[in-house]
Amino acid sequence: MSLEEAKAYAEVLKNEEHGQAKLVEGLDAAHPKFAEVISDLKKADASMPGGIPSYVSRARKLLLSAKEGVNPFEGCTVEVPTGVDLSLENGPGSAAFAECEKLGMQEIANCCFCLVAGGLGERLGYPGIKIGIVAEVTTNTTFMQLYAEHILALQDRARKATGKEDLTLPLAIMTSGDTHEKTVQLLTENKNFGMAEGQITLMMQEKVPALIDISANFACSDYALETKPHGHGDVHQLLFSTGTAQKWRDEGRKWVLFFQDTNPLPFRSFVAVVGASAREGFAMNSVAVPRVAGEAAGAICKLKQADGSALTINVEYNQLGPLLSGTPAGGDVPDATGFSPYPGNINVLLLSIPEYVAALAETKGVMPEFVNPKWAGEDKNAFKSATRLECMMQDFPRLLPSAAKVGFTQLDRWASFTCVKNNLEDARKKAEAGLPADCALSAEADIYNCNAELLRKCGADVAAPGPVEFLGVKAQVGPRVVLKPSFAVTLEEMKTKVTGAVSVSGKSTLVLAGDVSINGLTLDGTLAIDATNGKVELSGPSIVNEGWSLVPITPEAGTADFLKIRGYDTKRGEAKELKVAGGTETL
User: Fold this and answer.
1) Nearest Cα residue to 445 out of 142, 138, 148, 145
2) Taking a C-beta distance cutoff of 8 angstroms, is the pair 350, 287 a contact?
3) What's the pTM?
4) Contact 381, 405 (CB under 8 A)
């Protein structure tokens, strides 16, 4: 942008509609960075739906409501929403879960996936992107690799079911300015983790201007415009603006799963969730977990308006208590199950693509926003620090027509939720307070536990987890069981592959990939089988060896970054490792 063009656009910014007279009047056109900051404002205008005028108008309305303490749920009454319970006695191993898996297997050829991956690992003490973090140190598989493996395993089953060898299940990834180039690099260096050219679509989310006061003046310091993330709700606008969602619909796709960067567990129940959605006719299905009353987690609620209309949607925990105080229960309290009757939100969503795209066509995917200012004084006109408008992907029911059926599928936590969001110090503090550590160690423990529990559902005797501690962070870790997605995509499939008397001791590590069938196994050590290019049959072997174990390390110069955020690594002793290049091998 030339200086003259910058001066002309600066005059536009000063009008009431754009509302940035205060910012512009604080700039000197003779400053060498004047044109640069005005150019950044022009880019912000182009990147936001409705441009700066719409953003400022929305911000002023929301900030005024925040100042006046307007309750967004004023006049609403709360009811327990309609959904499918696949937890506890209806969870994996039950007839209800098996039925949903059977229905879901009929739908997987029509599925798409969307990974919300705009996060850096800086908060964790990790210098890269979060999807590049190693999920578990037994196989050193990154989260991105694990997601690709899950999608490719589902694709393999869909190809076999349909007879279409060229069928692909597409993946869209929402990146940010902070993560985009690193995501491209990760995918390029790893050849898309086996996914085909064109199978992955990258969509970069832009940041929005930060606000300094109730008039929605933008924050600018030393001729640099301050911007902040707008929230993961932008994923819907990006799927619309890139034409990705419309392309999926035109290809006859039926379902899209939204998932986040460090939670691979929902893939273990994905097929059952698709089956539940297909059976119930859900336009949107929120994957949820049993929620402890009073827990600092959002809840899926049915909100009824005075006019009789209703909306099933997530309510954030800080708004939930006051909302539930008017219910017959008198607040956020447990029911007879010991849990809240309102399922806990984990931000994993399954949407019906035809209804999703229809709603996008009406709304362009622009999500309802909120603002959370920290006021600088009693007059509530300025902020302690700059704020911004935000939006959340789970608020999509607000864009659906009232007739759309919105529900939930409740899963056990072990089968659906983990995350890596805390560094070691924060993880220690969380654990001391009796809260989930939500760090690399706890997520790795959750992955092993989920796999071990699935084996137990197949009748295997898998030792219970025991306490471990690394760099002050404690967790319960049992046998390191890694069931690669290529081994099985559903529990029902796994049951056909794991039969006979199977025993796995507490010190053991078991890795299964590809076409492996087990008819009896006694393991006290490490067994790692890669049958992705062949077949392995186990007929009751007893395998005893030194095995692999998790051992503490002291992070130092040269230590891999994914180990620094853990404080432990795998010590690889004597083990039984088998990789077949073709044919069938028997143990």
Assistant:
1) 138
2) yes
3) 0.95
4) no
